[in-house]
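Suppose a classmate hands you a notebook page containing two proteins, each written out with its sequence and a corresponding row of structure tokens. How would you begin to make sense of it? This section walks through that situation. The first entry is reproduced here exactly as it would appear on such a page.
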Amino acid sequence: MSTEVILPTLGESVNEATISRWLKEVGEHVDADEALLEVSTDKVDTEVP
């Protein structure tokens, strides 16, 4: 089963991000505000809930 994950705004000039690390395994439960993955841009690295 797939689920859409919406990337939050990371800055006005950030147009793309790369998933640098998944924080959860396939099938693992994720709560609404729990970090799911880590993204990297040219300006910031951050966890995404």
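The notebook's second entry, a different protein, reads as follows.
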Amino acid sequence: MSTPPKDTGLAMILEILPGIFGFLGIGHIYAGYTTTGILLLIGWWVILFILTVITVLTAGLGIFCQGSADDSRAYYLRACPEVEHGKITLVSACR
């Protein structure tokens, strides 16, 4: 007993439309390549999770190293007492 042939157009639609939303491999499962479809489906979510963790860690490290914007800017700028009207200038410009 043979299986009826699958519709290739439907398989392509089932691969592209869910793939836009991150569900890869649905078309492969429909076409009968279940192992490949499951590996694509699970593998994509595992890779996405790993990349999200790396992004959060590196962004968090960048924010931690930068500090708050007010603190970092205040270190480089100060008012020079000899400048009229208390203008703010760079530290190296003050005598």
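A careful reader of the second entry would note: The longest strand covers residues 77-79.
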